[in-house]
């Protein structure tokens, strides 16, 4: 479900048409980016 939500959000914000697997990758990257160890 989260993968679908992120896929839709990519389309709404950036106009990127993607599938569920791309949405899952984006969701994982988003979660990692929010971790303290990856912040400046």
From TrEMBL:
<protein>
    <submittedName>
        <fullName>Cysteine synthase A</fullName>
    </submittedName>
</protein>
<dbReference type="InterPro" id="IPR036052">
    <property type="entry name" value="TrpB-like_PALP_sf"/>
</dbReference>
